[in-house]
Amino acid sequence: MVRNEITGHTYRFPCGRWLGKGVDDGSLERVLIGELVLPSGEDDSARACRTPPLQRSPSQGRRISITSLTGRDTKLNSAQIQEGIGEAVNNIIKHFHKPEKERGSLTVLLCGENSLVAALEQFFHHGFKSARLFQKTVFVWDFVEKAVAYMESADQVGDLQETTEAMKMTCQSLCHYFNAINSTSRNIGKDGKFQLLVCLGARDRLLPQWLPLLVECPVILQMYEDTAMLRDPSTLNTLISVLEALHDFSITLEASLVKGINL
Question: Which residue in 141, 84, 115, 95 sits closest to 14, CA to CA?
Fold first, then answer.
């Protein structure tokens, strides 16, 4: 909790994650998204401004039921996940329809609680096998990494020759963005890298094009259940259509989010 003594506003910066190599997702830094606390009365205001009580560190068990970014533990079904994505995209659209002086923080809508990143994390975690089958903790970024490795090896051996030129360019863009994020000097963990991929993909209108490439990689059979939302063609097409609604708007990312990423 951070209080601005000049304006009297109090901001909450939720984290709920570990920092450390070999712990959680291996991150040594996290970008925390501040959200204005709106007290309902004087008592709430005073309570919000006090130093929060000491709390136990989060358990090392991987929380993937809502999102790693929110730290809540309620498991959502596919309908709720789709609704969450729709609301996240709709909130971004409403942001741009407001007069510029009345707009809030776009970063909160992209990366905060109930944001686009949080909603897409939910989508990618649905039917993910990591918690049950693998001996070590596996993250969505590990899936993306294996998919990119397959694309790069397929390109080298000529397996992509039969694909269209547009598909090749989309494949190259995904590999390029992945490698730029993965090679950054910043000490961000795997969930932070996934967040960057989503934000950059949304900014550059590439996210809907990348999704079919990830689905077509054979590694999805190893890492996702048959019932996963990512493997359902109808659900995937709906997601692509929803994300394409953002193409009408110019998304600008704060420097703190993309620091050290040359894209």
Answer: 115
Tell me the two tokens of residue 222.
């190893």
CA-CA distances (angstroms) from residue 260 to 46, 86, 117, 151, 185?
A: 39, 31, 20, 25, 7
Q: What is the pLDDT of residues 207-257, one digit of tens each?
A: 999 999 999 999 999 999 999 999 999 999 999 999 999 999 999 999 888
256-261: Cβ within 8 A, 24+ apart: 256/31, 257/31, 257/107, 257/111, 257/196, 257/199, 258/196, 258/199, 258/200, 259/186, 260/184, 260/185, 260/186, 261/180, 261/181, 261/184, 261/196, 261/200
- Token pair for 236: 């995937």
Task: Take residue 71 and report the two structure tokens written for it.
Answer: 């730290």
Q: What is the pTM of this model?
A: 0.80
Distance of CA 62 to the CA centre of its chain: 16
Question: On the CB side of 165, how many CA atoms lie within 13 Å of its CA?
Answer: 0
| Count of beta carbons in the 10 Å neighbourhood of residue 63 | 18
151 backbone dihedrals φ, ψ, rounded to 5°: -60, -40
Q: Per-residue pLDDT tens for 242-252?
A: 999 999 999 99
